[in-house]
Fold:
Amino acid sequence: MPSTAQHPASEGPPGSQPATPPEADTATPWATATADPSASAAEAAAKVDLETSPETSRLQDLSTVAPALAGGTALLRAPVDPATWRAVAQASIGFPWLLVTGILSTVLAALGIGLLPVFGLGALVLLVVLPAARGFARVERGRLLAQLGVLITPGPARTRPRLTSWRGLVAATTDRVAWGAVAYAAVAMLLVALEVVVAWSLGAVLALLLSPVLSWDDGPSVSQVALVAAGVVGPWVWAVATQALAVVHVRLARALLGLSRVSVEVRLAEAEAEQAREVAARAEQRADHLATTRTRAVGAADDDRRRIERDLHDGAQQRLVALGVELGTAKRAAATDPDAAAAALDHAHREIKETLSELRDLVRGIHPAVLTDRGLDAALSAIAARHPVPVTVEVPDPAALSAASPGAQAAAYFVTAEALTNSARHSGATRVHVVAGIGLGASGAVLRLEVVDDGRGGATASPGGGLDGLRSRVEALDGTFRLDSPAGRGTRIMVEVPCAS
Amino acid sequence: MRIVITEDSVLLLDGLTRLLVAEGHTVTGYRSADELVAAFAHLGPHELPDVLVTDVRMPPTHTDEGLRAAVHLRSLHPGLPVLVLSQYVEQRYATELFAGDVRALGYVLKDRVADVDDFLDALGRVSGGGTVIDPEVVSQLLARTRGTGVDRLTAREREVLGLMAEGRSNGAIAEMLVVGTAAVEKHVTSILTKLDLAPDADDHRRVLAVLRWLEHAPTRGDGS
Structure:
């Protein structure tokens, strides 16, 4: 036997195979919730952030932006904490940036509002300013992500305004997200000024340490000692204040540049609903599949029963009736015509032997005893031995094969039997090769079967035929059935059946 | 007798032919209902067989072509004696077959041919114009009569009713039950009275009446 790589059964139950959860491939159901083609990577990432509720994002802000506020070692090393220095950098860059944008947006927005009474001229200004404010918000969120490592979920994407209608115009000029950005620019401009003052005050604090030395005449005065003490404690005060201001900044950004709390919850709910819809759709698909395969399996079982009834009716039953006639004739002739009686008995004897052999074949066709007793490997060898054309059976791991579920083994057996019958009847094949083994399918262990002949091909699984019945049987077990039979190039039947037993 | 047999199983056709030939009959065998009907198309009124024996289920559809052929030939040749052999006794088949005249008509389970004497007897009765209905059919019919006038019959009367339905004459019933003809006549009168059937000396009409009654089995108080 060739030893192809197979999974021995001893490796553990097939159910323990790491299966990819079906949700994995569709893990971002809300990816389509906001279809803003210009959304930046940060915003795309922010959508995923929706998984966390507003409460958790607040806590995260504290631990990333202002760890010192939680006390402990973070407080002790506050002056040298990277968070502090990130806040300093943020304030340093944010100050000029927010000063310019804050003044611009405040002035322009005020101009827009101021000009509204003037024939609605202000509306035109607002139509330019508000989209720009959205752009500013995007850049600002990116800046906060880059500098403070804070992810802020953007508000709803802008829908292309329809300025031809009054309603569209109103919607465009009352864009909540954009006005939020304008408000942020105005407030953040003042806040960042405070931040930068605090951030840069470290120099002044350190200067306090030196201040007494400059005028140290005859022993330190009380106020001088106090100044030095303030210089020593100063860096901690500075660091905590810097971090705290950064948190305030982040909170402000969350409030004005991010989704409102209600919107976050709405989005979460929407995402959940979308997920639920997908689950429902998958369940429905599965139900459809089950209904179809079940109907076909029942149909195939009915076909089987009809075939068995027909076989019994045309075979054993007729033979037994004929046998009865022979024996009746013999009985009648026994006294008068012993020769005729003997001939009739002879007939009857032959008949009974043929009936028995026919019944044996029929019973084997219903379910072979060897399959139950000795497993698929033995059963396959048995049909191969009875087949008129040479059949090679390749089973790399008989033990693993016998461990497969009885349903899977039976399906594999009947596929082989039908494939061989078809091959003998229609293909004119001179050789048939059968391979059966256990492999790893998409969702756990599968029994793989392949029957290949060198006949003339062109086989089809026509409805109601033997192959179609087997296909139904295999599909009802959640397996796959492939028939590859190009004209003139042999027939290959490949079957995979899940075989967790 | 000239006997025509239609049977798709070669073995059985063979066995029956040998049996009947040994009994001194002339036998012609056909293996499908189509062959049978085609062969009858060329027969003149005086060339008809004395009895036609046919299987129910035959090629090409393996459903009931034998039965349909029998009904068809009986409509072409009224009074043609026909004995239908069936692997399964179905009351529905019997109802279709006996819808018209019951004279010279038989419907028996195929297994009965193994009882050669009974089979030859049935063949003789049908060719002689009698009616033969398989006890299995009768018991199926009787089984449906719970809650009808049959409940009023005594056990012996029910037995007699069954034999009447099988197409037996008073004489045959007396012989089978080992009683006198007078006793049988008394039972028959009692049965007919209890079932509200008109007494009729004619066996065929009596069989028909009993069959109809059993088929429709009026429930007590039904009034019909």
Chain B touches chain A through 21 residues (CB under 8 Å). Chain B has two domains: 2-133, 138-216. The beta strands of chain B are 2-6, 26-30, 51-55, 82-86, 105-109, 131-133. Residues 2-133 of chain B form a domain with the Rossmann fold fold (CATH 3.40.50.2300).
